[in-house]
Amino acid sequence: MVRSDAVPDDLVVVVRAAPASVDEAVDDIAHDALQSGRTYAVLDEAGRREALFGVSTFAHRPGVSLLTVLARFDDAPSYLEARVGALRAAGFKVLPTGTNLDHFDVQLLPGQGDDDADEPMLAVRTAATRLVAAAGELRLNPTYHEESDRTLEEE
Q: Can you give the pLDDT at residue 77?
C-alpha cells in the first residue's frame, strides 16, 4: 500500500539495520530488495504496475529519540541513515508505504514490470551499492544486543 502523504526532502530515515560491514550491508539490501520485487508491486506515474524492489526504512522525526527508532533493530550491529533529499539526489524514489506513518520504501530499481521474467540481480546489487554510498558510513547501533548476550540475560 502506497500512501498519498508527501515525503519532505529534509526527513531523515533510518535506511537499514545493517550487518557489521559495508559489503554485508549491500548483500543484505540487495537480497531484501529482490524478495520485495518478487512480492510487491506499485503503480508508476503512468499507472503501470512495476515491481517494488524496495528497501524498508523508518523515519527519524524531530523530537523522537534515535534510540526509539533503533530499538526495533536491536539484532543489527550497525545502521544507515540519510535524508530523503540525499536519496532522491542519488536517483532513488522514496515511497510512503504501509499503514505506519513512519514507514517508507526506497525503490532501488524503478521501471521494472512486475511480470518481467528476468530478475535483475546485478542491477539491484548495483543500486544497493549506490544506496549505501548515498547513506554514508555505517553507524554503530547503540541498541544492538548480541544473541549470546540475550541468552545470558534470560537465564
A: 93
pLDDT (0 to 100) of residue 119: 67
5 part of a folded domain: no
The yes-or-no verdict on residue 83 having pLDDT over 50 is: yes
What 3-state DSSP class applies to 111? coil
Domain that residue 74 falls in: 12-154
Q: What local confidence, expressed as pLDDT, does residue 149 receive?
A: 46
Which residues, 6+ apart, have CB-to-CB distance to 51 below 8 Å? 37, 38, 40, 41, 109, 112, 113, 114, 116
| Alpha-carbon torsion, ordered 44, 34, 118, 111, to 10 deg | 20
Assigned domain for 3 exists: no
Q: Where are the alpha helices (DSSP H) in the chain?
A: 22-39, 66-70, 84-89, 121-135, 147-154
User: Which residue, chain included where needed, has cell 518478487?
Assistant: 38
Produce one character per residue of 119-151: b if its CB has 16 or more CB atoms within 10 Å, e if not: ebeeebbebbbbbbebbeebeebebbeeeeeee
- pTM here? 0.84
The answer to whether residue 113 is domain-embedded is yes
Residues facing residue 13 across a β-bridge: 59, 82
Q: How many helices (H) and strands (E) does the chain have?
A: 5, 8
